[in-house]
């Protein structure tokens, strides 16, 4: 192509930019008025239904309050019954203590002391023992005793061992002896090392068969050797022990 040839140029014309239109904000008050105009009055059925719902809610709240008051009254009644039972036992033991004391012809006040145990507990040598009829695990048995301000029984000598063994009515009872802290190191729940006291295992116990870390007093063996080691999770009745109450008149 000839470089000197005539070149034709076209004129380009650009349209002016479109002007943005102003957007008018909606009048919220007008919108609200439209919504209000569109509302309909609730029907009679809806009004009655709402009234029933409100009434049922009030009744439910009232029933809940009555239930709470009933539970509180029940708890207070149980506490009152417990206090009455304690007073009745105290009066009874006071009478027994007075009858058992030596008679005196003097008018001087007497200072007499007697010991007694709670209802369903057995008294022996100033101690009280409770033979539970219900089986629990060893840990739960101990907790049950502690709720009675007692502990699983600690057998300190042959006399106590014989006394407890003769009181048994079931096959076996948990006692407060365990080696759960260290295998082979048997201790009573009061912290006493068994090696410092008499032992009443029947042969060849304790054998730790299947992790047997807690002890029972069993009726399957002749006296006095009738202790057996058992897994602590098993369920047996148990023996609680605590000091007898002292009454002075």
TrEMBL record:
Residues 124-241 form the C-type lectin domain. One of its GO terms (molecular function) is carbohydrate binding. InterPro entries: C-type_lectin-like (IPR001304), C-type_lectin-like/link_sf (IPR016186), C-type_lectin/snaclec_domain (IPR050111), C-type_lectin_CS (IPR018378), CD209-like_CTLD (IPR033989), CTDL_fold (IPR016187). PROSITE patterns: C_TYPE_LECTIN_1, C_TYPE_LECTIN_2. It comes from the Eukaryota. Keywords: Coiled coil, Disulfide bond, Lectin, Receptor. Residues 63-90 form a coiled coil. This is Asialoglycoprotein receptor 2. The keyword Disulfide bond applies. It comes from Chelonia mydas.
């Amino acid at each position: 192509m000839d470089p000197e040839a005539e070149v034709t140029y076209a004129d380009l014309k650009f349209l002016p930019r479109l002007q943005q239109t102003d957007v008018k904000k909606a009048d919220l008050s007008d919108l609200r008025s439209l919504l209000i105009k569109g509302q309909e009055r609730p029907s009679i059925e809806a009004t009655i239904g709402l009234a029933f719902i409100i009434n049922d809610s009030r009744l439910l709240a009232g029933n809940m309050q009555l239930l709470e008051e009933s539970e509180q009254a029940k708890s207070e009644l149980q506490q009152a019954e417990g206090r009455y039972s304690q007073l009745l036992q105290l009066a009874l033991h006071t009478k027994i203590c007075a009858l058992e004391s030596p008679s005196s012809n003097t008018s001087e006040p007497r200072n007499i002391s007697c010991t007694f145990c709670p209802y369903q507990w057995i008294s022996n040598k100033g101690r009280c023992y409770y033979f539970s009829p219900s089986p629990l695990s060893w840990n739960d048995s101990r907790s049950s005793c502690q709720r009675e301000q007692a502990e699983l029984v600690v057998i300190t000598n042959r006399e106590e061992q014989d006394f407890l063994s003769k009181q048994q009515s079931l096959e076996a009872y948990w006692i407060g002896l365990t080696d759960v802290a260290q295998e082979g190191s048997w201790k009573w729940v009061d912290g006493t090392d068994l090696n410092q006291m008499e032992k009443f295992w029947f042969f060849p116990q304790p054998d730790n068969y299947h992790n047997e870390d807690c002890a029972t007093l069993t009726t399957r063996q002749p006296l006095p050797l009738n202790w057996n080691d058992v897994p602590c999770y098993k369920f047996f009745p148990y023996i609680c022990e605590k000091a007898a109450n002292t009454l002075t008149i």
